[in-house]
Amino acid sequence: MALLIPAIWHSDSDQWLADLDFRIWHANPTVWLERVSNPVLTEFLQLVYTLFVPAVLLVAFLLWKRGKCAEFQYYAFLIALGYLVSYIGYVIVPARGPRFLLRNVQHVPLQGLWLFHAMQNTLDRLESAHYDCFPSGHTELTILACWGSRLVSNRVYLAYTPLIIFATVYLRYHYTVDLLAGIMVAAALICFGPALYRKLSKGGTAIGGR
């Protein structure tokens, strides 16, 4: 994305997304959230955010371990489809996030306890230049993981999902409109994924609707 987006677009969509947020809330959400910012919460939410990929993969592992092969295959399909839709969104609406656009209007820098900066810097190095805001893949895919976890044990995911959604804005990675888009995409994939899977896979009958 770091090379593709600048080659396709001469500008990004950050200001447009930030303006949408401001019209909805009459404030910049990341700036407003400074009033609840504290090192303990920042450290905790950065950990929640960093565990995103393991959280998504854990559902697949549990399905496979419990011998739910058909459900495992459908879940893998759904997550792959979720990533595909996310990346299409990143190309169509390229944005780096409020952490970059609004840095000059933020009054309080985020400070953690011990590992906050290490986790954030590691993610920055892995993701290179960020053009991965709209829709929020963290929101979309965590909702899909939460939905998939109902066949194993979803109590943890029922708690984890709202935490990571909140973390995306609190940590200044996303605009709130990104979250709305991610929720809508996840809902659409949950509704229409089974029919698409049946069309693409002979073994997809009745999968996903249980």
Tell me the Rg in angstroms. Answer: 18 Å
The secondary-structure element order is HHHHHHHHHHH
Helical fraction: 55-70%
The average pLDDT score comes to 89
Q: What kind of sheet is the major sheet?
A: none
Specify the structural class.
mainly alpha
Span of the ends, CA to CA: 36 Å
Structure in a nutshell:
With 210 residues, the protein is an all-alpha fold. The chain has helices at residues 4-8, 14-25, 29-32, 39-50, 52-65, 69-92, 98-101, 116-127, 137-148, 155-170, 176-200.
SSE blueprint:
Layout: H1 4-8, H2 14-25, H3 29-32, H4 39-50, H5 52-65, H6 69-92, H7 98-101, H8 116-127, H9 137-148, H10 155-170, H11 176-200
Helix pairs in contact: 4-8, 4-10, 5-6, 5-9, 6-9, 6-11, 9-10, 9-11
Describe the structure.
The chain has helices at residues 4-8, 14-25, 29-32, 39-50, 52-65, 69-92, 98-101, 116-127, 137-148, 155-170, 176-200. The longest helix has 25 residues, at 176-200. Helix content is 67%, strand content 0%. The protein is built from eleven helices and no strands. The chain has one domain. By secondary structure, it is mainly α. The N and C termini lie far apart (36 Å).
